[in-house]
Design brief:
This protein is mainly alpha-helical. Helix content is 65%, strand content 5%. It has a 4-stranded mixed beta sheet, with helices on both faces. Helix 3 links the parallel strand 1 and strand 2. About 7% of the residues have low confidence.
Length: 411
């Protein structure tokens, strides 16, 4: 065990002496996170959500009780720091404003919306349209969520009114001719419609803090560059084989298994150190709340373990350093995109969301997102277990490949 630790410590020190590697491991994720924070407005106001003053256009063609209630929700004082709504009449011009990236979304409340909800007949409900800007997925997603929350409350009130009227009719308490007027009276104030949408959070350790959008971007960048770290570690193994350093190491009383374990542990410790430095740095510089310390630490250990499995598998399959470098760079970008480092994978088609689960990025980001929303160890346990299983499976395949091809590619 001592020999394994000595080899790992030696590799860890060498990794942090490599200036080029340090730039990609530490400086690049910091700079990308900072740039994304500036783009999203993270540093433009006192709010730490990066979502303040979302430009929004409201088109109320309905004019009924529910149409006016939805406009009131967006104009309520509880949302005045989050959205900046403007009421207009021309829907065509409003859509053009979205197309020209002048606003995040347009909410169109069509004529007859209120009547379709309160109708005594089974006429279809007239849908509310949210015309969103694909260039502002986070902001338009917030608008979509507010509208969906409002409509859910409306639908709940409609169902309650329908059930109440049906029971009154069956019991003979009202006449069929009075059903329409009574249903409209019951539905005038569906559950929660007149209650403004509120965004609140408490900061004590037992409750959920407000979500910080930068808390999603920062781990996304860290995890993407973690793939560079583990693949670069595999490249150093092949480099030592070519330069003769590794054969000289095996001349000493060190078994091949100890040498491999030491090299793998060195790459692992480098990845853990990289993640912890980035987490500590972004917490100090940007004020990011990563969540409960113990859960963050365990998630980092599991994430690096899962990523290391891919790095070692690439090392076992590759024959030259250039192959590791080229394939490793491609893997870093593909896993970053597919795993959600740039765009939330929930916006992907279903098959892409399934495919994303082969990446450690997707599982780890699920965990960091849960912690950023106030979750604890129980909330990230599925991600941790998935990453550990991923690492073990990839290690098993790597050992098989090494044994099949011989030590470091020699039969």
């Amino acid at each position: 065990m001592k020999k394994i630790l000595l080899i790992a410590w030696k590799d860890l020190r060498l990794a942090f002496r490599d200036r080029a590697a340090l730039v990609l491991m530490l400086a690049a994720p910091f700079l990308l996170t900072l740039g994304l924070g500036l783009v999203t407005g993270r540093f433009s106001s006192t709010s730490n959500s990066g979502l303040s003053s979302i430009p929004l256009i409201l088109i109320n063609q309905d004019g009924g009780e529910l149409g006016n209630a939805l406009v009131d929700v967006f104009q309520s004082s509880d949302l005045d720091t989050l959205v900046d709504p403007v009421v207009q009449i021309d829907a065509t011009a409003a859509r053009a404003a979205v197309d020209e990236d002048q606003t995040a979304a347009v909410v169109i409340i069509p004529a007859g919306f209120t009547n379709s909800i309160f109708s005594a007949t089974s006429t279809p409900v007239v849908p509310v349209e949210v015309y969103s800007n694909p260039a502002r997925p986070t902001s338009s997603g917030v608008v979509q969520a507010i509208v969906e929350g409002f409509l859910s409350q409306v639908e709940l009130g409609r169902i309650n009114g329908t059930v109440t009227i049906s029971q009154l009719l069956e019991g003979g308490y009202i006449q069929p001719a009075d059903a329409a007027s009574l249903g409209r009276e019951i539905g005038q104030e569906p559950a929660g419609v007149n209650a403004p949408v509120t965004l609140s959070g408490r900061t004590d350790e037992n409750t959920a803090p407000p979500f910080d959008v930068l808390a999603y971007m920062a781990p996304g960048m860290a995890l993407m560059f973690l793939m560079f770290t583990v693949t670069n570690g595999g490249r150093t193994i092949l480099q030592e084989r070519v330069s003769g350093t590794l054969p000289r190491l095996l001349v000493d009383p060190v078994r091949l298994s100890q040498a491999l374990a030491g090299k793998a542990l060195g790459i692992y410790l480098t990845g853990v150190a990289q993640m912890l430095i980035l987490i500590g740095g972004t917490a100090l510089l940007f004020g990011i709340r990563w969540g409960h310390t113990n859960a963050v630490l365990v998630l980092v250990l599991a994430a690096v373990f899962g990523a290391l499995g891919w790095g070692l598998l690439l090392t076992a399959l590759a024959r030259t350093q250039s192959q590791v470098a080229n394939i490793g760079s491609a893997m870093m970008l593909v896993f970053g995109i597919l795993g959600g480092s740039f765009v939330d994978i929930r916006s992907f088609p279903a098959w892409m969301q399934t495919a994303a689960r082969i990446t450690p990025n997707a599982w780890a980001l699920d965990g960091f997102l849960a912690l950023g929303l106030g979750g604890g160890m129980a909330d990230v346990l599925p991600s941790i277990l998935a990453l550990i299983i991923m690492g073990l499976a990839l290690f098993a395949i790597t050992v098989f490949v090494f044994l099949r091809r011989g030590a470091f590619g020699h039969r």
